[in-house]
């Protein structure tokens, strides 16, 4: 019996440690540990509620727009204006958020996970004239190979020609991501932390010039997704098809839904482009979502605050060195059960509900690989779901931008209530994201956020149930314990964001320099 420790896992956002106990080449037990401690929720206490959508964006530089969206939905709810958002404001929020979705998905495949499958060293003897490839060749000749190394060796299978073309696309994807940021800034005003989203809608007005600029930039991104991103994912899947059977994990999937299609005040009844709901791999039947069933456990987290609490009543009191704990991440549960969140959960949820174009696109991928829908519940399934989702979102954004009406309102007026409570739930690129607020004396009395990687990367809960990362790793065959490429491929397929997952409060008076975790 051996023990594999990967600390930190690179090419993700934040500090993640994975431990795996291996017996006869199979992972028998896995632990996912968030190794960073931060403070955001306490920063918000006693502030003007309108500060929330600005400050919570600083939880993460990769997915700030998701926090801006959840926070504004949260304040809409608390201010009693959730049903008063004008159509322009609703659509502009979708376009701003959608721009970040596209950037995030392209980032995840090319710059975070592709190097698990694509061998960049194939470019070392390239003798053509493609400027992107010549840049990489010159970089390799310089001798400093980061970020292409360090890496685990032993399982690079793509033909040399595919390695070369994928490396070229790696470089082009950097430019496409820039265009996604520019796209967001047209109506968001700024990226990474947009300045436009606000309670009641947005601040940026609509003009014909901005619509034209947005559509022109979007078309370049759509072309890349259709002709580069999706073909590259399919090329990897064709050679690494065994990963359709690796890293499945928990089998329960949840989405809060994302991209508002109306202004229904009850967020559990609001129509969304990607629908809200639950689905299980056991029967692939849709189930209804109830936010009152969300709780957070802390038995195996370095906190001594109350456990199994709903986020609206959440507490966070640090307890470094706590016996039996191994992570700064909490363990969210829905109705006491473990759920995976993210693009796979969204697309499965849409698929079982018969939503188009998800059904057609998913079926086309499954047909190509002669696979059933359960094949998506895997490492490669998560990549396929992201690529499919990127196309769907980009195509829909091309329609949404043409629905804008110059000269019409973009936000509703509001007043900050003396007291109130709010909830803002949506799906970030990485999965289900919720913000909860309590207002007293016109100020924030309590603010809690439960983020996608808290759901996916949390440790065992009070009942000993492993989290989604842990369950996806357990049962995996490891060919070489010194090169556990199987484990990092599985974990990276979730697109972890530890900066978000460990946003929790810094208790007043705590001296962080004295924290020692063994």
Strand content: 15-25%
**Average predicted local confidence, pLDDT:** 92
- Per CATH, the superfamily is Cytochrome-c3 Hydrogenase, chain B
Order of helices and strands: EEEHHHHHHEEHEEEEEEEHHHEEEHHHH
Major sheet description: 3 strands, antiparallel
What is the CATH architecture annotation?
Answer: Orthogonal Bundle
Percent helix:
25-40%
Radius of gyration: 22 Å
Uncertain runs are 505-518
Q: Reading side by side through the largest sheet, how are the strands ordered?
A: 1-2-3
By CATH, the topology is: Cytochrome-c3 Hydrogenase, chain B
Number of helices: 14
Shape: globular
Any idea of the CATH class? Mainly Alpha
Question: Could you explain how this protein is built, in words?
Answer:
The chain is of the alpha+beta class. Helices cover 37% and strands 15% of the residues. Strand 2 and strand 3 (26-34) form a beta hairpin. The two termini are 22 Å apart.
What features would you highlight for this structure?
518 residues; alpha+beta; Cytochrome-c3 Hydrogenase, chain B; three-stranded antiparallel sheet; 15 strands
Short characterization:
The protein is an alpha+beta fold and 518 residues long. Helices cover 37% and strands 15% of the residues.
How are the SSEs ordered, and which strands pair?
Blueprint: E1 2-6, E2 16-23, E3 26-34, H1 41-44, H2 52-55, H3 64-79, H4 87-113, H5 131-141, H6 160-188, E4 197-198, E5 201-202, H7 208-239, E6 252-255, E7 258-260, E8 272-274, E9 277-280, E10 286-287, E11 294-297, E12 331-334, H8 343-352, H9 358-368, H10 379-400, E13 419-428, E14 431-440, E15 443-450, H11 452-457, H12 468-473, H13 485-493, H14 498-501
Antiparallel strand pairs: 1-2, 2-3, 4-5, 6-9, 7-8, 9-10, 11-12, 13-14, 14-15
């Amino acid at each position: 019996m051996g023990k594999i420790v990967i600390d930190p896992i690179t090419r993700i956002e934040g500090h993640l440690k994975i431990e795996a106990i291996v017996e006869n080449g199979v992972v028998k037990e896995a632990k996912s540990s968030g190794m960073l401690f931060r403070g955001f929720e306490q920063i918000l206490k006693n502030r003007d509620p309108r500060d929330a959508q600005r400050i919570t964006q600083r939880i993460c530089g990769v997915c700030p727009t998701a926090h801006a969206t959840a926070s504004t939905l949260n304040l809409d709810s608390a201010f009693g204006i959730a049903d008063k958002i004008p159509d322009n404001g609703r659509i502009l929020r979708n376009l701003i958020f959608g721009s970040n979705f596209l950037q995030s998905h392209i980032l995840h495949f090319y710059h975070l996970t592709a190097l698990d499958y694509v061998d960049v060293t194939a470019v070392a003897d390239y003798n053509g004239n493609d400027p992107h490839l010549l840049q990489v060749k010159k970089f390799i000749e310089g001798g400093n190979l980061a970020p292409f190394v360090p890496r685990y060796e032993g399982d690079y299978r793509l033909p040399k020609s595919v390695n070369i073309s994928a490396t070229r696309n790696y470089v082009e994807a950097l430019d496409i991501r820039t265009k996604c940021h520019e796209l967001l800034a047209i109506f968001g005003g700024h990226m990474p932390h947009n300045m436009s989203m606000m309670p009641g809608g947005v601040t940026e007005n609509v003009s014909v010039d901005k619509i034209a600029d947005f559509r022109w930039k979007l078309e370049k991104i759509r072309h890349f997704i259709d002709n580069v991103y999706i073909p590259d994912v399919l090329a990897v899947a064709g050679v690494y098809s065994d990963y359709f059977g690796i890293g499945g994990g928990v089998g329960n999937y949840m989405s809060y839904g994302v991209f508002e299609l109306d202004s229904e005040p009850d967020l559990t009844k609001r129509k969304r482009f990607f629908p809200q709901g639950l689905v299980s791999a056991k029967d692939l039947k849709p189930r209804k979502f109830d936010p009152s069933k969300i709780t957070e456990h802390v038995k195996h987290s370095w906190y001594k605050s109350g456990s199994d609490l709903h986020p609206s009543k959440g507490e966070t009191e640090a307890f470094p060195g706590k016996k039996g704990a191994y992570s700064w991440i909490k363990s969210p549960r829905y109705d006491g059960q473990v759920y995976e969140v993210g693009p796979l959960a969204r697309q499965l949820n849409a698929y079982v509900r018969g939503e188009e174009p998800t059904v057609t696109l998913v079926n086309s991928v499954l047909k190509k690989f002669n696979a059933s829908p359960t094949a998506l519940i895997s490492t490669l399934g998560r990549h396929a779901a992201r690529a499919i989702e990127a196309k769907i979102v980009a195509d829909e954004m091309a329609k949404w931008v043409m629905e804008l009406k110059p000269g019409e309102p973009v936000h509703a007026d509001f007043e900050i209530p003396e007291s109130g409570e709010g909830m803002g739930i949506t799906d970030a690129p990485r999965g289900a994201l919720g913000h909860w607020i309590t207002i007293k004396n016109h100020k924030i009395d309590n603010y809690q956020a439960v983020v996608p990687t808290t759901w996916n990367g949390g440790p065992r809960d009070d009942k000993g149930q492993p989290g989604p990362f842990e369950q996806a790793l357990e049962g995996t065959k490891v060919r070489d314990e010194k090169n556990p490429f199987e484990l990092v491929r599985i974990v990276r397929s979730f697109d972890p964001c530890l900066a978000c997952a460990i946003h929790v409060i810094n208790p007043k008076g705590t001296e962080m320099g004295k924290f020692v975790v063994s």
